[in-house]
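Entry 0007
Protein: UPF0149 family protein
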Amino acid sequence: MLHTDAQIEELDAALLALPPESEGMLASQFDGFVTGVLLCPEMIMPSEWLPHVWGDPELAVFESDAAAQRTVAAVKAHYNRVARGLARSRAVYEPLFDENTRTGEVLWEMWVAGFEEAMRLRPDSWLATVESGDPDVEPALPLLLTLHAIQAGESDMPKASIDELTEQAPDLIPELVLTLNRWVKGQRATTGAANLPGAPVRSAKVGRNDPCPCGSGRKFKKCCGQETVH
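Output (structure tokens):
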């Protein structure tokens, strides 16, 4: 098991600590987002992707610096778990999907929305996957984009095809992730350029004079380290 129930609950609570008006990510969307960051053929540093997690930086207000520290730690811990799973010799990936508690339906749409947001950080880099010459890898990205179009209500596919892909998506997504991961690890072996880190993203305590981990560019004490912070 890649994530324990306690770890998922901790991540949920940390992200829910952000005010709704900031439009920060929830757990399933964040899981898709960090997966996209890790699979991107080009390196993306935490200082660049973290601000996307919080949403509007002016509205992402934590109750205290302790709450800010807990949220950053939970976010980075999840990133590291996903990274370790993908970096194994026999990679493991378990997407976080929401579930309709009334019907039992698996809700994969927010995961895909998060993955697509990560892709937008380096859109040109992803073209390498569709030009890879690998018959398994080349269709992976178009399939994920097709799922995103369905999620966004922008697909022009026949309803029967949409319904079929919607049903297949929970099983299809982890397969596509592992296919892309295999290709990315091969590229990393030859070029050294990928986001599957040899060392984890650290979540040690942030000094009050250090740059804020939210990516604002301000010192922690002037940002997420204030009594009422953002």
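Curator remark: The chain has eight helices and two strands. Residues 15 and 26 are 6 Å apart (CA to CA).
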